[in-house]
Design brief:
By secondary structure, the protein is an alpha+beta fold. The protein has eleven helices and eleven strands. Strand 7 and strand 8 (297-302) form a beta hairpin.
Length: 385
């Protein structure tokens, strides 16, 4: 009898614990949902889709506003958005696959790609921020480009340089495709590699790795319109992007598909065997010191917790995006917007500061578990040996 009583007590206690956990999760989600709605209103975002992935499951998602200028198509977790620079995470992973397959050598000099020197010399002559410290006579490699370490001397410092990243598709097209003169207007080799190594195994059927992928025309036609929004909330529809994937941008995706992407990364199913550490830890400089970036992801410690992330911003087409991973807690935030200023906060070109994003901060405050001592060694950006 006592044994039965103890068993029942344990079962009841377990059920109560589950119920309390469920209530806690519900409260957490309800608070975040309210915050997201207020965030959208404050930033006058025409259409916003947000999702939270927890324990390899899309735990919560929401679509707010409309995907079109006529306000007839509501945004959902299945609405395709141009994800702008979030594409770099796909490009970095694609290059890891090509490196693992011994198809590319990352220490190859970038100037071997036709027209690279001409672009570099043009950029070097401008007053653009990306030209600061750029020396086209230096030995810039594909690895330097992938890790945003091209500025002089290459390999010594981090400087976000999307113009150089945009040369990566030409690098692959020169080596394996139909040549850089044929790259415009077609689904290039980089896009094909992303399809084969990432989209297909992750079953991301609502994602295009290029606007010129004829097999994904339904996604193209469902793409949310992009807008420029002024301070009063007046919206101007902007021209739809019409690009191949150059390296810096090119991917169109949805919350549901990016959740599949997050889950596939966490499970290792789309990460080349033996190369997982290269994806989830930052690159190093030639000195051996840690960089804040590697293979398409920013890395930082925030209050003792390791964060991986990337933003997206396209003011010419009217889109912004954010993908924030907390890998050690199996947790991620994904957000897509169809206005250029909706999710963009003007991150530094030389250091990661995702906590400056209002939406990221709401997510961190609602979902992330922080150590009591934020200066503890719990956040390790370097591989333990």
């Amino acid at each position: 009898m006592n044994r039965i009583f103890l068993t029942l007590s344990r079962v009841l206690g377990f059920c109560v614990a589950l119920q309390i956990g469920s209530y806690a999760h519900a409260d957490e989600t309800h608070a975040f949902e309210s915050d997201v709605k207020a965030f959208r209103q404050a930033n006058k975002i025409p259409g916003l889709a947000v999702g939270v992935v927890k324990d390899q499951d899309l735990a919560w998602s929401i679509g707010l506003g409309y995907a079109d200028s006529n306000r007839t198509v509501p945004v959902t977790a299945d609405t395709p958005f141009w994800i702008a620079s979030l594409s770099k995470t796909f490009v970095g992973l694609a290059y890891l696959h090509l490196e693992q397959q011994n198809k590319v050598q990352l220490d190859e000099v970038a100037a071997k790609t036709p027209n690279f020197d001409g672009l570099c010399r043009w950029l070097e002559s401008t007053s653009l921020a990306f030209a600061n410290g750029l020396n086209c006579d230096a030995k810039i490699t594909i690895r330097h480009i992938l890790h945003h370490q091209v500025n002089d001397p290459p390999g010594s410092q981090f400087m976000y340089n999307p113009i150089m990243y945009s040369r990566l598709s030409r690098h692959l097209e020169h080596k394996f495709g139909e040549g850089i003169d044929a790259v415009e207007g077609r689904h290039n080799y980089l896009g094909q590699t992303i399809d084969k190594e990432i989209l297909e195994p992750a079953q991301m059927t609502r994602t295009m790795s290029s606007m010129w992928d004829r097999s994904k025309m339904e996604v193209y036609f469902d793409l949310a319109d992009g807008f420029k929004v002024d301070d009063k909330g007046n919206k101007t529809k902007l021209p739809r992007p019409d690009k191949h994937i150059a390296g810096g941008a090119g991917v169109v995706s949805t919350i549901n598909d990016l959740a599949k992407y997050e889950i596939a990364i966490s499970q290792g199913s789309i990460v080349p065997k033996g190369f997982g550490d290269k994806l989830i830890y930052p690159a190093k400089y030639s000195s051996g010191d840690l960089s804040p970036y590697g293979f398409g992801w920013y890395f930082q410690c925030y209050q003792g917790v390791k964060l991986m992330w990337h933003g997206g911003w396209d003011p010419d087409s009217g889109y912004s995006a954010l993908f924030l991973r907390v890998p050690e807690q199996d947790l991620a935030l994904i957000a897509l917007a169809n206005s250029e200023s909706g999710l963009w906060w003007g991150n530094s070109l030389t250091e990661p500061q995702v906590e400056r994003s209002d939406l990221a901060k709401l997510f961190l405050d609602n979902y992330v578990e922080f150590p009591e001592d934020p200066n503890s060694d719990r956040c390790r950006l370097e591989i333990d040996h």
